[in-house]
Each structure stands twice: as C-alpha cells, then as structure tokens.
Amino acid sequence: MRIFWMALFFLGCAAVLPQGLRAADGQLGTSRADKGPLETINIAQPLAGEQQQAERPVPPSFPANGKSETETIPDTDVRNRAHLVQINWERTYGNTAADHLHSWTIMPDGGLLMAGKTNAVPTGPSNAWLVCTDAQGQLLWQKNFGNSDTDYARDLLSLTDGNFLMLGNQFSENNGRYNLWLVKLDPAGNILWQKNYGGERNEYARSIMATPDGNFLISGATESKGAGSFDVWLLKIDGEGNLLWDKTFGGTEYERAPILAMAEDGQFYLAGATQSKGAGQSDAWLLKFKANGKLRWEKTYGGAGYETINDFIFMPNGDFLLAGTTSTPGIQDSNGWFLRGSSDGKLLWEKNVGGAGKEAANALLALPDGGILAGGIKHAAGDPESDAWLLRMDAKGKFLWEVTMGQKPSSESISHLALLPDGQVLVLAEITVGGNSNLDANLMKIALSED
After folding, report:
1. All domains in the chain, ordered by first residue
2. How far apart are CA 304 and CA 177, in angstroms?
3. pLDDT tens across 70-114, in order?
4. Hey, is 377 helix, strand or coil?
5. Are 308 and 273 in contact (CB under 8 A)?
6. Rounded CA gap, 420 and 4, in Å?
7. Which of 110-114, 283-287, 403-407, 408-412 comes out lowest in average pLDDT?
8. Are 221 and 229 in contact (CB under 8 A)?
9. What does 134-194 look like in DSSP terms, one character per residue?
10. Helix, strand, coil share (%) of the chain residues, nearest 5
C-alpha cells in the first residue's frame, strides 16, 4: 500500500497516442539551476500567527443521495466511434530516454508552453524540462533546468506580466531530501528567481494557482509537518515567492490532493484522495475553502476499495465534475470514475465506466453543448499494453461513445484536454515503447464530429 502511494507522489498521469512526428528541430539547451540565485525557505515550524489546520473527522458522504451507476463497455463495443475523431495534426517531443510533460499553458498567440521532466541530461537522473511551440505544435525551443540530481516540473502558470511560474521538485544536496521548487521565468525561459520550500524530510509539489488578491496558492504533500506519513500541504505565497502562510490536512495515513480549482467567488477547492478517512482503503477527498484559506467543508466519496481523483472542472451552472478511477468490489478490475456535485458538496450522480480490463479517467473537458469529453487510459483484459482513451458523455453522465487510440507494441495514455477558440480540442498524452526507457510526450489537435 505504501509503495502504491509513494508512486502517486512521484508520477503524474501518463498520456499518449499514436506515434507522431518527433520534434527534432530544437536543441535541448541546459539552463542549470545554479545560474539563478536560490533561496531556501524552511517550513519545519508553523509561521507565527498561523497554526496548522486542526484535524476533524469526516463522515463518509458516498453515495450522499446521489445516483450511482456502473456502465460496462465490452472490449468490442459498437459505440467505439473512431470516425468521430479527426486528427488534424500530431507532434511528438522527446529524446532517447524517458520524457514527460506534466503541465501546459496556452499563450495569447495560440502557442504552448509545456513543463515536465527529461532523463536525457548529462547533469543528473532527470531535469525539469520546458518546451515551447507555436500554435501548430511546431517546436520553437526547449530547455532543461536542474542540479546534479533528480529535478522535475509539476505545474506551470502564466502571469499577467507575460512571465511564468514553474512549480516542481528539486532534490536538496544539503539534506538529501526533496523540496518544493518554484521558478519564475521570462517568456524566453530564462530564470528570474527561484526558491525552495521544505523541512527536514520530503515535500512534493503538485499545483499552483493565482488568487484574486494577486497572490498564489500551492498544493503539495509534506512529510515534515502534519499528522501522518504524508499530509496534504497548502501554501500561500506573494508575487515574490515569500511564504504568507501554510497549512496541512490529513490523518495518520497517506493523503494527496494534486488539484487546485478556483471558483468565481474566490472560494477554492482541493481534490485528491485519502487513506485516513472515508469508507474504503482509499477514498476520493474533496475540500472547499473560503477565500481567506479557512476550511469550509470536506467530503469523502467512495466504496470499500480504492478510489482517487485525477481531474476537477466546473460546469456552466457552478456544479463541479470529478474524474478518476475506482476499484471498489463488484468492478472486474478498475473503471473510469465520474462524479458530479453541487457547490455544497452534495453528490448529484456518480458513474463507473469500463470493461473487463483496466480504465482510468485522467482529464475532463466541458463542451459547449453541455456535454463532457474525458480522456485517460484503457487496458483490454489480458493486454499488458494500454491505449489512449477518449469518451463522450452527456451532462447527466450518460455514456455516448468511446474512441481508443494506439499502436502496438506501445502504451498510450491521455493526461490533458483543452478546448480551443475554433471549437477543436488539444490533447496532451504520452507514448511508451519498450517499458519506461523510451517515453515521449505527444500533442494532438483533434476535431469532434456528431454521430
């Protein structure tokens, strides 16, 4: 169980599709972290005047008056509608080693800045990796950042001044532990400043988000503070990276909350999974906060098995939609899992979608017609390799169709979806050939058709 949860902290959602064009026209430039001043902020003790959030018991909220349904999809399902997805272009980025892109931001000119990690570096096991493309996905430049050990980027945020914040993890050579690592970059990928946040043990970064007051929230996990093995760690910083306050949430076991989401009224959500609370071995966990960071409520959703949340979006009426995976008893293996709830946390409906193999939902997209597009990973029963998985649902969670994409011998998985102004969809994914030794990032622009 502990190995499973440690793996979740280190790895992002995998993603990929059919083999595309390798973006080999950009040289991988090295931008060592020691070229910029590095400030380390020690968080071993709570800040004055801001104590850690008190632990509170959370009663299971599943099914909480919501309707729970399981929809089994045969591996030869006639609703596999490959003709409904047209690939307009596809690009693949990477070298001869394992390369991941964990986050992206779309720039005003339609180009993309993407961040992750690459193992194709001379300075250590891995470096943070930054990739810049034009609106057609053509590579403009790429850079890597890091010291002589394992460093990687988890999230990326564009700023109103045209610069960017890159959030990740950096291995500290001082204490042999991982710290949260925040880097401010200019539009060309040059370091303006960088800071580390950490204590005596390991900390892991997951998400960063701007707040209406001009500051920033960071979510992660900490071993140095809190009640358990790993607790959720929430930090608020100002525009210069100075720590304003930090809080931990969790029980005696492992918790993770990789997703931050801001509501229109300035309140915000954390979403992930907990082993300390709820009904099962691991339950989905949703926390809602006031704009000042005070916890309003927290809910768990799940059954007797393992559930986790991989994405969160708002629907047009203010409801939230969650996507993840469930392996509650009664499911053959694991299914893609979808939950819709209201702003007070009440579960409106919950759907399990999958077949005889393994499925996981990693990404969500609200479509203009009120429907839902989801992306993830699908294993047919008995198949060690996976396909990228796209599925379409209506606003009530009714399954409409699915499309699987991939080619053997490789494994593919979708991690991110974005709706473009022209109504088409960007898909970020990964493709693995021959195990994890050759993993590339994959970007596609697709158009959806009506059945």
Report:
1. 2-34+61-448 (2.120.10.30)
2. 34
3. 555 554 454 567 788 999 999 999 877 788 899 999 998 999 999
4. strand
5. yes
6. 35
7. 408-412
8. no
9. -TT--EEEEEEEE-SSBEEEEEEEE-TTS-EEEEEEEEETTTTEEEEEEEEE-TTS-EEEE
10. 5, 55, 40
Confidence at residue 76, expressed as pLDDT on a 0 to 100 scale: 47
Calpha distance 93→349 (Å, rounded): 38
How many Å from the N-terminal Cα to the C-terminal Cα in the chain? 43
Residue 121 DSSP symbol: -
Cα of 375 vs its chain's centroid, Å: 12
Count of alpha carbons within 13 Å of 274, Cβ hemisphere only?
26
Contact 85, 450 (CB under 8 A): no
The strand pairing partners of 128, in sequence order, are 117, 145
In DSSP notation, 258-326 reads: EEEEE-TTS-EEEEEEESSSSSSSBEEEEEEE-TTS-EEEEEEE--SSBEEEEEEEE-TTS-EEEEEEE
**Vertex 425: Cα angle to 91 and 449 (nearest 5):** 115
Sequence letter at residue 371: G
CA distances from 134 to 13, 112, 178, 225, 415 (A): 24, 6, 33, 42, 20
